[in-house]
Design brief:
single chain; 11 helices; mainly alpha; two-stranded antiparallel ribbon; Rhomboid-like fold; 205 residues
Amino acid sequence: MSSVLIIIIITSIISFNGFKDSSFQSKLLFSPYAIQHRNEYYRLITHIFLHGDPFHLIFNMMSLYFLGEFLEFTLTSPLFYGKITGEIHFLLIYFLGGLFSTLIPFARNKDNVYYRSLGASGAVSSVIFATILWAPTLELNIMFLPIPIPAYIFGPLYLAYEFYADKKGGTGIAHDAHIGGAIFGILYVLIINIDKGKEFLNLIF
């Protein structure tokens, strides 16, 4: 079984438990105030396994499945890093991406007792943008759009929207976490294979 499927199963189990038990969910969600003032550092990771509702869970896990399976298969290929090293790279992209995605929200809200967030969106964003940089010509079938979009076009458009929505505010969505995850996914690929960055730039320009 792939790491992607294991993550999806564990995340689904914990998320559904959170749907049924609000106190369980409250103890694990991302709270910068609790991290800053009560040293509850585990929240930096545990929020990745929680979701607000079934649609939130399904959307994130579908995105993880379709792009994560591709990225995991590619990284574990003998052409690149092999089974063990490739799996390690994928898991680091996902979990460190989820951790990195909390940096901006934490800095903004560490003294805000009311701020709460949850979901794997930051970690999934890391996987998405690692995939985009690794395979920029990959065609992505985006929900609600009838035609596939090349990854190198989707990536910049998606980031532009996230920056706009973050600046505008009022959506109830942690756009800054999506941005943080995307940045980590891009940086990670550049660190392990700088040629992928060069290939992406050559494609764009």
